[in-house]
């Protein structure tokens, strides 16, 4: 029972009251394979060096111009083209919220394929924008005809294309993406290519971004290996980024966050080796899953594997009883019926995941 007074409850938006908060699963004592985190910790010598560096920061001051050193380092790391600029967010989630805020003109809407990342729809709702979801095909490919029809009908302000997609893990057809990008540009809308899982993918849209003036590319350091640091970044044509940057809170990146990120980029080879290990583990996991009776894994270019199982709810609980936590996505969308999303872990964690899955089948 709510103990907030009825009068006060009237001051809180009705749609917010009927929402469910983003659920974080309790993972104490579990092999945690539910949130696409990099399972590798920093090596001990780097932990010590980072601790000393963070300890020396002036925490009594607001973040300073050093944040621009990070912007420059990230631009170089990502291979940002000339004439483009970079904007930082407290995770990609903040950038998604800021985009909805910046584009909230009367009649504006956001469009994205479904199933996809939940924050695209949530940011639209919270900002009072319409959200239009277009179902993928049964094999999780973009439905070209449906996407183009939705662009023509709704004339969305923003289209999100996650590349690779979450929770399906796949990269989409290049020609289809290009048709969607051109159609959206022709009606004067934005396209945001969300490359959260870029460290694990075989290609990036960065090679093609200079062809367009209405495409933004978003990445994060979460999958790079710094999920706890909360740092997302967005690259796009200078003039466009300058407009969106106006809605960003002035000190949105803490000194601890940007110093951690700078430190990580100075040791990029450590994280590159971790990503390589996870790509190799993903291949091994896909092969092992395909050999299990009744389990259908889908191709993945991310650090997760979507797998269809005979009974997702029962197998999820069975794996949990074996102390392995994954994500049951089967109720997220009809296309995901009986699907579990498995984060790629270390070799030992993947052994435990496979053993728990076998025992639960």
From TrEMBL:
Keywords: Amino-acid biosynthesis, Aminotransferase, Histidine biosynthesis, Pyridoxal phosphate, Transferase. Residues 30-357 form the Aminotransferase class I/classII large domain. Belongs to the class-II pyridoxal-phosphate-dependent aminotransferase family. Histidinol-phosphate aminotransferase subfamily. Gene3D superfamilies: Aspartate Aminotransferase, domain 1 (3.90.1150.10), Type I PLP-dependent aspartate aminotransferase-like (Major domain) (3.40.640.10). InterPro entries: Aminotransferase_I/II_large (IPR004839), HisP_aminotrans (IPR005861), PyrdxlP-dep_Trfase (IPR015424), PyrdxlP-dep_Trfase_major (IPR015421), PyrdxlP-dep_Trfase_small (IPR015422). It comes from the Bacteria. The modification N6-(pyridoxal phosphate)lysine is found at residue 223. It catalyses: L-histidinol phosphate + 2-oxoglutarate = 3-(imidazol-4-yl)-2-oxopropyl phosphate + L-glutamate. Homodimer. Its cofactor is pyridoxal 5'-phosphate. This is Histidinol-phosphate aminotransferase. GO terms for biological process: L-histidine biosynthetic process. Transmembrane segments: none annotated. Its EC number is 2.6.1.9. It holds the Pfam family Aminotran_1_2. Pathway: Amino-acid biosynthesis; L-histidine biosynthesis; L-histidine from 5-phospho-alpha-D-ribose 1-diphosphate: step 7/9. One of its GO terms (molecular function) is histidinol-phosphate transaminase activity. It comes from Limnohabitans radicicola.
